[in-house]
Amino acid sequence: MQAVQDKEGIKRYLITLHVNGDSYTRVVKANTLLVNVLRDDLDLTGTKKGCELGDCGSCTVLLEGKPVNSCMVLAVEADGREILTIEGLAQNEKLDQIQEAFVDNAAVQCGYCSSGMIMSAKALLTSNPDPTEQEVREAIAGNLCRCTGYVNIVKAILSCRKSEEGSE
After folding, report:
1. Domains of the chain, with CATH numbers?
2. Which of 36, 93, 97, 121 is the most buried (most CB within 10 A)?
3. How far apart are CA 89 and CA 5, in angstroms?
4. What pTM was computed for the model?
5. How far is the C-alpha of 82 from the C-alpha of 106, rounded, in Å?
6. What is the pLDDT of residues 32-56, one digit of tens each?
């Protein structure tokens, strides 16, 4: 990461983010949050800004495959690292299995928490393709939903388990 000074003498940093398979180079202040770069600079608005305190999970993205609250990660900390946002899940205009499961199981109401929930679920299913209900609930514990009561969200995630394949 290269440090540069602007006209006012403020130190800024040249960073490269690898987001959804593409690389982006930006100049940011030391205190710039990853959520702000994703939303404001890269126009990836599927990553929601909620509490901005790391409590709600609406800004969850995968950083090197691990779910993180992007409102708690400095952009400079993500320099050179792989980031996956909700926009990067669909491939060739086909929704990811988890996105389809959320639709099929009516796991979306207002939708504000959905991208964070889906990203947390994606991380879980990648590391544990056959989670128990308790493991699903633990994986999404950092994602708040004020609409659904979580029943259909858990049902959607469980429908993506390896043990569920072929049982339809």
Report:
1. 2-85 (3.10.20.30), 97-164 (1.10.150.120)
2. 121
3. 36
4. 0.92
5. 30
6. 999 999 999 999 999 999 999 999 9
